[in-house]
Specification:
With about 250 residues, this protein is mostly helical. It contains nine helices and no strands.
Length: about 250
């Protein structure tokens, strides 16, 4: 009998895991975008991260059910990427995704069980403070900032060139539009996070580092902040929709 340890058997799991995981990823980004858009429109809301968006769901029966489903979906995404890494597909990139979405799964589970999660912004401050205390800490933080900007530029490249289409089986006009807009929005927030990490390293001030929520807050406090935040929020919503389209058309082996 084949098991998940067999590469061929593992490949058979990739399709369902990819679809469930991408839908959960889309919901996560959609929540962030919706909350930020409400804030930009002056209708409440919040500039928050994926973790913060999940925290907003806590406290109601519907929210708890959605959090449980999100935890399952995010875990599926992490397992899909783990299988890809194990099979040698973009090993470093997929291993990084496993860590990120494994952590998000753990966060969702903690929130379901009643724990209150620290904001991504505060986590960025604490982590940066620890790193800056190490020998060569400013260099490490600066490199992390450069990596974030690099990832952001890659998102921009993927969006502008529509390279994401190469991973699809079929075409989607709506998917093309939300894919371009969504990837550009991700570039904006990642570039901001990277820039402020570099600034924290140069000034040796960990409080200048920001998470996703902090990057959105920075946009909100700029001139025409509501407009800029609204555009970025709409872009993150578009990325959430893109994830749904991706779940429909994605070749799970890619």
């Amino acid at each position: 009998m084949e098991t998940i340890a067999n590469p061929r058997s593992a490949s058979e799991w990739k399709g369902p895991l990819a679809r469930v995981g991408l839908i959960a990823k889309g919901v996560s980004y959609g929540l962030v975008g919706a909350l930020a858009l409400k804030l930009a429109l002056g209708d409440g809301g919040a500039a928050t991260s994926n973790q913060g968006a999940m925290q907003h769901l806590a406290g109601t029966s519907f929210g708890t059910v959605l959090l449980v489903l999100l935890a399952i979906g995010l875990a599926a995404y992490a397992v899909w990427r783990a299988i890809q890494a194990w099979q040698g597909e973009e090993r470093f990139v997929n291993a990084s995704r496993v860590l990120i979405y494994g952590a998000l799964t753990y966060t969702a589970i903690k929130i379901v069980t009643g724990a209150r999660e620290q904001s991504q912004n505060k986590s960025a401050h604490k982590t940066t403070a620890v790193l800056l205390s190490w020998p060569g800490g400013p260099v490490i933080v600066g490199l992390i900032g450069a990596v974030l900007i690099g990832i952001g530029l890659y998102q921009l490249y993927m969006g502008v060139t529509r390279k994401f289409e190469e991973k699809w089986r079929g075409q989607s006009d709506i998917g093309d539009v939300v894919g371009v807009v969504g990837h550009i929005a991700r570039f904006v927030v990642l570039a901001l996070m990277g820039a402020f990490a570099i600034k924290a390293a140069v000034d040796y001030q960990p409080q200048k580092a920001v998470g996703l929520d902090g990057a959105l807050q920075k946009l909100a406090h700029e001139s025409y902040g509501s407009f800029l935040l609204g555009l970025t929020a709409a872009g993150l919503l578009a990325y959430g929709v893109f994830c749904f389209v991706d779940a429909r058309y994605r070749d799970p082996s890619r």
